[in-house]
Amino acid sequence: RGVGVQPDGTIYVAGSIRTNKAPERWDLGTWVYDKDKTAYGPDQYGAPEDFANKYSERGRAVAVLADGRVAVVGFAEVKLPKINEPFLRAVAVLYEGKGTRVGVWTSAGDKMKHDAALATVATDEGFALCGYAQADPSDPADKTQILIRWLNADLDEVKTPRLELTPGAATCNALGYNRDGALVVGAEIRNDPQGNDMWIYAASDAASPLVNYLKRNGADNGDDRVLGLSCDYMCGWVGAETVAGASQWIAGMIRG
User: Fold this and answer.
1) Residue 79 near residue 51, CB atoms below 8 Å
2) CA angle 30-94-208, nearest 5°?
3) What is the pLDDT of residues 122-157, one digit of tens each?
4) Does 42 sit behind a cis peptide bond, omega within 30 degrees of 0 on the bond before it?
5) Can you give the pLDDT at residue 115?
6) pLDDT at 100
């Protein structure tokens, strides 16, 4: 699901390892490859309290930090005391070297009952992650909302989380970081009757004004979404849009 490359050429790959077929269960998996193609791992992460393998954890994205360490982000099903249903929580697993796990962070679920991390990017302070938060996935009227968090290299939150409240359901799929120290968010936002639209915007912290870069409904009123970002002075983005019922790649550039 995600790939990051350290300065020495070491490649980190994030994804999931299936641990049970029926019912289906997964552990977060991290694979590491040296530049000479030597493989290390995989490192398989499951929630420490999940001894019976009842829940799933998944890796989604990789960020290589300024000090060379690597953050793999994703989400995990977490069992809370005296509550039967599991809650979804964003997770970040920190590595150094050739896949040595040195720390794990789990969201406190302080914004909504459920949240997940789908994208990450290195920042001056450490790294940021985003995805979505949701109060009640079983409620058809409940909507996902974009949630962004900032962490340092020691896995401490260094800024107040930013929850982007929108009329339609919205999910962050990609993150960039520009020269001004702002996050550039690549997302999809529900805009009926035309389905999901692409959305790219910038934000520096929880209180900063949102700066819109792009909102796009594709050539047809189908689902359109941003899936990747790479930012410096300019931002390159890639995504997918639906035309005549078929999904096709689309890419562009914006001033980041």
Assistant:
1) no
2) 115
3) 999 999 999 999 998 888 889 999 999 999 999 999
4) yes
5) 97
6) 95
Nearest to 148 by CA among 178, 184, 191, 124: 184
Backbone phi, then psi, for 190, in 5-degree steps?
A: -75, 130
The dihedrals phi and psi of 74, each to the nearest 5 degrees, come to: 180, -140
Neighbours of 26 (CB within 10 A): 22
In this prediction, residue 233 carries a pLDDT of 87
**Contact at 8 Å (CB) between 256 and 239?**
no
3-state secondary structure 187-212: EEEECCCCCEEEEEEEECCCCCCCEE
| CA separation for the pair 102, 123 (Å, rounded) | 19
pLDDT at position 256 is 62
Q: What residues does 158 pair with on adjacent strands?
A: none
Residue 90 structure tokens: 């964003």
Do 62 and 10 form a contact (C-beta atoms < 8 A)? no
Q: Which stretches in the chain have pLDDT values below 50?
A: none
pLDDT at residue 73, as a whole number:
98
Using one digit for the tens of pLDDT, what is the confidence trace for 10-43?
Answer: 999 999 999 999 889 999 999 999 989 899 989 9
SS3 of 170, please? strand
- Through-space distance between the first and last CA atoms of the chain, rounded to whole angstroms: 25
Long-range contacts of 66-69 (CB under 8 A, 24+ apart): 66/122, 66/124, 66/153, 67/153, 68/6, 68/7, 68/8, 68/96, 69/94, 69/95, 69/96, 69/102, 69/153
154, 127 contact by CB (below 8 A): no
3-state helix, strand, coil in the chain (%, to 5): 0, 60, 40
Identity (one letter) of the amino acid at 254? I
